[in-house]
Write a structure and sequence with these properties.
Number of helices: 2
Distance between the termini: 81 Å
Helix content: over 70%
Structural class: mainly alpha
Order of helices and strands: HH
Number of strands: 0
Radius of gyration: 27 Å
Strand content: under 5%
Largest sheet: none
Shape: rod-shaped
Length: 71
């Protein structure tokens, strides 16, 4: 492994411990934040799909009922 990389990892680990975190905490926080963002976007898109689907079902039902009433 490269010497500069080893030195960087040792420095970063020391820096992170000096502010009260462990080496794996920052990546774990980043993944947690990403999961929350992805979940929020998914929830928003699902609400849009549900609304569109409900409107489409209602339109289809109204069309069917109008055909039945005309017959």
């Amino acid at each position: 492994m490269n010497t500069w990389f080893n030195n960087w990892v040792i420095w970063f680990d020391g820096f992170v411990h000096s502010i009260g975190f462990h080496f794996f905490t920052i990546p774990a926080l980043a993944v947690g934040i990403l999961m929350i963002l992805v979940g929020a976007v998914h929830w928003r898109n699902q609400k849009k799909r549900d609304k569109t689907s409900k409107e489409k079902r209602q339109e289809t039902l109204n069309t069917y009922l109008n055909k039945e009433a005309a017959a």
